[in-house]
Design brief:
Umud Fragment, subunit A, four-stranded antiparallel beta sheet, 11 strands, 31% strand, elongated
């Protein structure tokens, strides 16, 4: 009888641990594995991170935030940077970003890497020229490694509802540990 009570107590503890863990990793923080070079050098292929999944309102999302998006086309979550917000016209001309005709610097891009990548791939543009106008419910995202990123240019625009997390911490490998803003 005593062993039966211990077994029941143990099973209840396991069930509680599984439920709490499931809630934490689906509603509070989202584990993410970066599986491409699309955000390099900001994030590396193989980085494992956890990102905030709580309180993601439209007001919390800002231009240039790194976000995790649910991507139906690729059937997986992807990590990208928000460039364009609803109703805006996003233009790239000669590697320069314009939003509604106003130039925006992109200080998160590594200029040395850009020059190296352009040289390696024998191109004069890191971001090909284009212009797109977003609808009132659309956001436009790009990877930081524009020459190797499958993003809104190929996947189309996203909505706020596609965002599953933002801001986080690279936790593995340890030598890549850093905050993601």
């Amino acid at each position: 009888m005593k062993k039966k009570k211990q077994l029941i107590k143990f099973l209840i503890q396991i069930i509680v641990i599984v439920l709490v863990t499931t809630i934490i990793f689906t509603r509070v923080i989202i584990p993410v594995r970066v599986d491409s070079q699309s955000m390099y050098p900001t994030l590396n292929d193989g980085d494992f991170a956890v990102v905030n999944a709580m309180y993601l309102s439209k007001e919390d999302i800002q231009r240039f935030d790194v976000v995790v998006l649910e991507c139906d086309v690729l059937d997986k979550d992807i990590v990208k940077r928000i460039i364009g917000l609803p109703g805006e016209t996003v233009t790239y001309r000669e590697d320069r970003l314009y939003i509604n005709g106003v130039y925006y610097a992109e200080p998160f891009l590594d200029q040395n890497y850009i020059e190296e990548a352009k040289s390696n791939y024998q191109t004069d543009r890191f971001t090909n020229d284009f212009e797109i106008t977003l609808k009132d419910d659309e956001i436009f995202v790009l990877g930081d490694n524009r020459l190797h990123s499958t993003d809104s240019r190929a996947l189309g625009n996203f909505s706020y509802d596609d965002i599953v997390g933002k801001k986080g911490l690279v936790v593995f490998p340890f030598n890549n540990m850093k905050f993601i803003d």
